[in-house]
From TrEMBL:
Gene Ontology CC terms: cytosol; endoplasmic reticulum
Upper taxonomic lineage: Eukaryota, Metazoa, Chordata, Craniata, Vertebrata
Pfam families: START
One Gene Ontology molecular-function label: cholesterol binding
Name of protein: STAR4 protein
Organism for this UniProt entry: Campylorhamphus procurvoides
SUPFAM superfamilies linked: Bet v1-like
Database matches in Gene3D superfamilies: 3.30.530.20
Transmembrane portions of the chain: none
START domain sequence ranges: 29-206
GO biological process: cholesterol import; cholesterol transport involved in cholesterol storage; intracellular cholesterol transport
Length: 206
């Protein structure tokens, strides 16, 4: 088990990585799924053998309230249908923490429940906010769970210029679920999980 990293350099590196993803040209992405709530694209990840997913949709609320529902805190468990538990293990200054959370089984339990330990960081971005995270090799894996790994992930939330009580929410997710899984099952689960995330979030904010 590795010791906890120093939060400031990790936070800076994580933010820079997410800003770089946010600047990737549209031609590099391929549409994976589209619903009335969100569009999901994907491209091969630079971090592992799976995909980096990009999700985007307009959410009818102000930036701060949306991000409060996404980042680690009391709201997330109430509405996120995939998340089954969440504990804050360490809290640092500057909106940084380490959290452990578990996810439900998916696709008729082809994908068994997973556990993650993530470093999370929330910071300002343009007129809005960025909340981002990366998994750490920290703590013992609990029985009945496979330990998954999130490569740099994050959510940019900025108010719409002409309608500031609506926000554009753009997410970048690259999750290595680990365990013996068919890649096609992982790809199906990721695309549907991301569109469900938007519809669940919108219901929670009403």
């Amino acid at each position: 088990m590795e010791p906890l990293p120093s939060p400031a350099p990790l936070a800076a590196r994580l933010r820079n990585t997410l800003v770089r993803y946010h600047g990737i040209a549209g031609a590099e992405w391929r549409v994976a799924r589209k619903t009335k709530d969100a569009t999901v694209w994907r491209k091969p990840s630079e971090e592992f053998s799976g995909y980096l997913y990009k999700a985007q949709g307009v959410v009818e609320d102000v930036t701060n309230r949306i991000v409060d529902h996404i980042r680690p805190g009391p709201y997330r468990l109430d509405w996120d249908s995939l998340m089954t538990s969440m504990d804050i293990l360490e809290t640092f200054e500057e909106n940084c923490c380490v959290m452990r959370y578990t996810t439900a089984g998916q696709l008729w339990n082809i994908i068994a429940p997973r556990e993650f330990v993530d470093f999370s960081y929330t910071t300002s971005y343009e007129d809005g906010l960025l909340t981002c995270g990366i998994s750490l090799d920290y703590g013992e894996v609990r029985p009945n769970f496979v330990r998954g790994f999130n490569h740099p992930c994050g959510w940019f939330c900025v108010p719409l210029k002409d309608c500031p009580n609506h926000s554009l929410l753009t997410g970048y997710i690259q999750t290595e679920l680990r365990g013996m899984l068919p890649q096609s099952a992982v790809d199906t689960a990721m695309s549907s999980t991301l569109t469900n995330f938007y519809s669940d979030l919108k219901k929670a904010l009403k």
